[in-house]
Design brief:
This protein is of the alpha/beta class. The protein contains eleven helices and ten strands. D-glutamic acid binds next to helix 3.
């Protein structure tokens, strides 16, 4: 079994999760697969998402990687029990519970949860938040236009315009970014709603059981896109300001 940590998302969102993990634990080795070929996952039903993710998990198994951080709320909300049942050898680390568990207690009374359509439909966040604190009212807001804009490298002005349009009637005292792509919109969302904004990045860093390591040297970061590695490399340079290399991964979906 490899000591590498696998990570998955449909694309650029999970790379923010990866960045947070690499910053916190540079000594670890990471392998990230961004399934840009099938992004956005939020437009697919659970059956399709399960199919795509299964093929990617089999790829991880071929590398002997069995520890997986799921950097995608849509996967967590829709297919986590099926994934755990199908891949019993894997340890899956999901992000919904840690994202909710980081909320400050007794502070919020009305949270807006922004997510993909596929996540909103499951009410996974509403259920998790009301389990955390039944006194919190939760407004679930699907934002299907956000991921295509981010994946399509839309300008900051275009992103701000989309955020303003989507959030114009929202009143809340806190907002949860229940899609790992949305932290790219954090400033626009905060400027629009003027409330605290929570995402999954630090939450999963705090939750993952990092191995104790005395390694001095840096670990490796291997990144694949199922669509176009060169293109993702450019997206990473422009959005994340990292010079990470990306390979194209051709899988038999
Ligand atoms: N970033 C993912 C999420 O957290 C998937 C977004 C998408 O591909 O629709 O839900």
């Amino acid at each position: 079994m490899s000591s590498k940590i696998g990570m998955i998302d449909s694309g650029m969102g999970g790379l923010l999760v990866l960045k947070a993990c690499v910053e916190a634990h540079p000594e670890c080795d990471f392998v990230f697969v961004g399934d840009q070929l099938h992004a956005p996952y939020g437009e697919h039903d659970a059956e399709k998402i399960f199919h795509y993710v299964t093929v990617i998990m089999e790829y991880f198994a071929s590398l002997h990687i069995y520890d997986i951080i799921i950097g995608c709320n849509t996967i967590c909300a829709n297919i986590l029990p099926q994934l755990r049942a199908r891949f019993s050898r894997f340890r899956f680390f999901e992000i919904i519970d840690p994202t909710v568990a980081q909320l400050p207690r007794g502070v919020h009374r009305h949270l807006a949860v922004l997510s993909t359509e596929a996540t909103a439909k499951t009410h996974a966040y509403k259920n998790a938040i009301q389990h955390f604190d039944p006194a919190i009212a939760v407004q679930e807001i699907a934002c299907p236009e956000f991921v295509p804009l981010i994946e399509g490298n839309a300008s900051a002005a275009r992103l701000t315009q989309a955020v303003k349009k989507r959030l114009k009637d929202v009143t809340c005292d806190g907002v949860v970014l229940a899609c790992t792509h949305y932290p790219y919109l954090r400033e626009a969302i905060a400027a629009c709603l003027h409330v605290p904004v929570y995402d999954s990045n630090q939450a999963i860093v705090n939750r993952y059981p990092w191995p104790v390591s005395h390694k001095q040297e840096k670990g490796s970061v291997t990144i694949y896109s199922t669509l176009d590695g060169e293109q993702m490399e450019k997206q990473i340079a422009s959005l994340l300001k990292q010079d990470w290399k990306v390979k194209t991964l051709i899988l038999d979906f």
